[in-house]
Design a protein that fits this description.
The protein is of the alpha/beta class. It has eleven helices and nine strands.
């Protein structure tokens, strides 16, 4: 039996591939550029993408379980829907899909709305799937490391509601466990949603305080300006994506990303260890600077 991992060269997908290989699973990785894919020799690398239907058919042939991760692109919903249709034609019944927490709440944010649409199609098409709904990735803050250390400010628009930030290493390990659970089940398992959250729900002020303690100097929170956030992002990403991120930031301020009762305990039990904390990430980041 074979597990196909899409998004295999990204931070989460690459770790999932590595976890599966260590567990002796037959792994196939879908990538755009095989020459840039540096995987263990046991991994079968297939060139393709979600808009190349023939390449998808080839990648999914003989696959028993699919990890579906679609990139934040303007046609994200179309790409994922094509992948789901090809998967159904290929007879794939077991899926783990990486969505996002509160996809049904952040309805005006394009990439959230797209992922919620994919969730609905998974249900409507009758797939047996685990829908993983991660909160904000802790490692997103690597892109503002120099601002924190160089200018003494935490600039992300986190707000005062709080985000249950999660380490991408925990996301990858949980996704791997769900893939194996579905792959190894005697019959396809019923659809299930799992919120992926970290051990704490942190505000912008909380995060600034963590950095202040780790760096042993004052770090201020100054991130509620979503307009300025958008303008900064436009320097290194397309304008549509920067606006998408701004809309997300505005929902951070009004809604936060809050866990449901029992989420942390469920994930801790699943992993068999505590979830990684933001403070641990800050210490690692400061030590490697």
């Amino acid at each position: 039996m074979t597990i196909l991992v899409t998004g295999a060269t990204g931070n989460v997908g690459r770790q999932i591939v590595e976890h599966l290989v260590k567990r002796g699973v037959d792994v196939r990785a879908l990538v755009r550029e095989p020459s840039k894919a540096q995987f263990p020799a046991e991994v079968s690398v297939v060139k393709g993408d979600f808009l190349n239907v023939d390449s998808l058919r080839n990648a999914m042939s003989g696959v028993s379980t699919l990890f579906l991760l679609s990139a934040v692109v303007p046609d994200e919903f179309t790409q994922a829907l094509i992948a789901l249709n090809v998967a159904r034609s290929a007879g794939i019944e077991r899926i783990v899909y990486l969505s996002v927490i509160h996809a049904d709440v952040y309805v005006n944010v394009p990439h959230f709305a797209g992922k919620f649409g994919v969730e609905r199609m998974i249900e409507q098409m009758g797939f047996n799937a685990t829908i993983l709904r991660p909160a904000y990735f802790i490692q997103n803050d690597l892109m503002v490391k120099d601002v924190i250390t160089g200018y003494g400010a935490y600039p992300m628009p986190i707000g005062a509601k709080g985000l249950a930030m999660i380490d991408i290493r925990d996301i990858a390990e949980i996704a791997t466990l769900e893939l194996l659970r579905r792959e190894q089940a005697a019959e396809p398992l019923a659809l299930e949603r799992i919120n992926l959250v970290g051990p704490q729900t942190l505000t912008g002020t909380d995060i600034a305080a963590i950095w202040s303690a780790v760096l042993a100097r004052p770090i201020a929170y100054g991130g509620d300006n979503t307009e300025g956030f958008e303008q900064n992002l436009k320097q290194f990403m397309p304008a549509w994506m920067a606006y998408d991120m701004r809309l997300m930031g505005e929902r951070f301020l009004t809604d936060g990303m809050l866990p449901e009762a029992g989420d942390v305990e469920r994930l801790t039990a699943l992993l068999g260890r505590p979830l990684r904390s933001y403070r641990a990430f800050a210490l690692e980041t400061a030590a490697s600077a």
